[in-house]
Amino acid sequence: MSTEFVAIHRNGPLVEIVLDRPENGNLINAEMSDAIIAAVSSLDDEVKLVRIGSSGADFCKGRQSPMPAADAKPSAETLRRVVAAPPLALYDALKAVRVPVISVVRGAALGVGCALAGVCDVVLAADDAVFQIPEMERDIPPTLVMSALIGRVPVKTVAHMVLSRQRLSAAEALQAGLVSRIVPAASLDAEANALTQTLLGCSAVTLRAVKQFLHLAPEMSATGASGFAAHLAATALSARF
Questions:
Q1: Which is nearest to 209 in space by CA: 228, 240, 236?
Q2: pTM over 0.85
Q3: Of 45, 107, 120, 153, which shows the fewest CB atoms inside 10 Å?
Q4: DSSP string over 106-167
């Protein structure tokens, strides 16, 4: 399901999502969000990988504001439904994908763009990428973006980004745990393709096992995580016979 501003392609076991609104920094609107949710919520068992990228100079500069007019005096419930629920649904859908999700980030990843990158399992960033959570410049608590990052990025990193509103360079984002790897901007597409081929060389059951462990093990006790690891490994290996 593609829309005017997001292209979604199935290439064998790969589902590729490309934000395609470069004239305004790939701001995400409701239609784009719905298309991404629909795509990642209906993956069949042959899919091994989801990759999220962008066209143009920037990954995503945030979200097209859905705020009602100032004189509308919306209720808290209206704001929850119109403003809060859509991005939370997007983050939850990406977290729930059974296979690895990688984001390929160049240029600016701001606000929702930062969350969209961070909620992925692997973040491959160009050396010119920048990450920022600027909402408090408008006196808005960015709890929606924070909900995407908590549990994936250290709490102190999230706190500093939110409270300081400072932009992190790709190197700073790597050090802070938001980025998995940095590559030269000119090599980003080639590196992303190489990583994609490496992952696609594995079976879907192995990739799903890795994703399950990454998602669930951090909340388990050491004993529980060990037992879960054994279960997943045995299940994946048994699929070969």
A1: 236
A2: yes
A3: 45
A4: -SEEETHHHHHHHTSSEEEEETT-EEE--GGGGT---HHHHHHHBTTB-HHHHHHHHHH-PP
14: helix, coil or strand?
A: strand
Pairing of β 130-132 and β 168-169: antiparallel
Alpha-carbon distance 115 to 218, whole Å? 20
Give the separation between CA 33 and CA 55, rounded to whole angstroms.
16
Is residue 39 within 8 Å of residue 19, measured between CB atoms? no
**What stretches of the chain adopt beta strand conformation (E)?**
6-11, 14-19, 49-54, 101-105, 108-110, 122-126, 130-132, 168-169, 181-183
CATH topology of domain 6-197: 2-enoyl-CoA Hydratase; Chain A, domain 1 (3.90.226)
Look up tokens 């590559």; give the residue: 183
Q: Each residue's pLDDT tens digit in the chain (241 positions)?
A: 567 899 999 999 999 999 999 999 999 998 999 999 999 999 999 999 999 999 999 999 999 877 666 666 777 787 777 777 888 999 999 999 999 999 999 999 999 999 999 999 999 999 999 999 999 998 989 999 999 999 889 999 999 999 999 999 999 999 999 999 999 999 999 999 999 999 999 999 999 999 999 988 988 999 999 999 999 999 888 887 7
Provide the residue ranges of all domains of the chain, joining segments of one domain with +.
6-197, 203-238
Q: Kindly state the tokens that stand for 36.
A: 């991404």
